[in-house]
Amino acid sequence: MAEYWWVNHNTSHKHEIAGNFLWSPQRERDGKFSQFYENMRVARPGDIVLSYAKQRIGYVGRVVGLAEEAPLPDELRRPSNYWASTGWRLPVVWERASRAVEPKSVYSALQPLMPSKYSPLKRSKPEGAQKAYLARVGREVFDVIATAGGWVPIVVPEASRPSFEDLGIEGAIRQALARIAASAARSGEQRTSSYPQRSAERSDPLEALLRETWAAQKGACSLCGVAIPISPQNPLLQLSVDRIDSDVKEYVRGNVQITHLGCNLAKNSAPMEHWGEFFGVITQVAANNGMLPQGKTIL
Ligand SMILES: [Zn+2]
Fold it and tell me: Architecture of 4-160 per CATH?
């Protein structure tokens, strides 16, 4: 299913619209995690974006690729506005709305539909929230705006939106990285070693390390030895990133393994020896119940 987003452009909207993209820093000015910037990496091809600038929504965009790490475009360079020289660039094809809509004019319908967390609008005013850049909104928000503007209904053919399976391991790794970032933000920790410290670095080192680890593990979970499906129905089977020694807070080479989410949750912060012992118990129970092929262990 396509997702719906709302972007509050900075002074950059002309360039972003003309150039068919969105660009954001990766972190707040003070280095803090921002869900609004992380959303750049959550958006997927086929998603729809409402463009809000100068108190109105005047363009609608369709995401046509995944966000890539990219330097601050020259056109966006302002002495005070941007602090990051490297950010996320999301390709979006923009179309001018047949009629621009001021959220103010439909605020009573819009307000109850706004997300309680990470809303693109201020809490009690129909004005763009200061720190919000790319915010997830529901289909209902889109419908209120589209109806107010009398827009020709936009049909999003589901087939045009690749699943994470279509995006393959790249998509699954992006998803896992987004979960790590979100949980680090919740716990108030900084995810270390993954965000480039120097602007010269062109790609997220953790993302590169995960691709390498995936290849080395041949796509199998390092805790149970069974293949990890790319886009499983069962969330416990999805790809997850485990720090081998949980006391080492960094996701660095030698301390990172790829697992099923379920296996990772079960291991929690236990050392590998404890996991091995526990896994022995599960496989014994499974074998006793005839859930494993006779005489065969998983590992
Ligand atoms: Zn597993």
Answer: Roll (3.10)
Residue 33 CA to ligand 1 center (angstroms) comes to 29
* Fold adopted by 186-288: DNA Binding (I), subunit A (1.10.30)
Q: 259: CA distance to ligand 1 center in Å?
A: 5
Taking the centre of ligand 1 as the mean of its atom positions, its distance from the CA of residue 249, in whole angstroms, is: 22
Q: Are the CB atoms for 37 and 29 separated by under 8 Å? A: no
Dihedral Cα 217, 220, 67, 45, nearest 10 deg: 150
pLDDT digits (tens, 9 = 90+) for 206-223: 888 998 999 999 999 999
Residue that has been written with the tokens 């080492």 in this structure: 248
User: pTM for the full model?
Assistant: 0.59
How many whole angstroms from 228 Cα to the centroid of ligand 1? 7
Element counts in the chain: helices (H) and strands (E) = 8, 9
Neighbour tally for 238: CB within 10 Å: 21
Q: pLDDT by residue (tens digit) across 263-299?
A: 999 999 899 999 999 999 998 988 888 776 655 555 5
Q: Domain extents for the chain?
A: 4-160, 186-288
Looking up tokens 């410290």 gives: 197
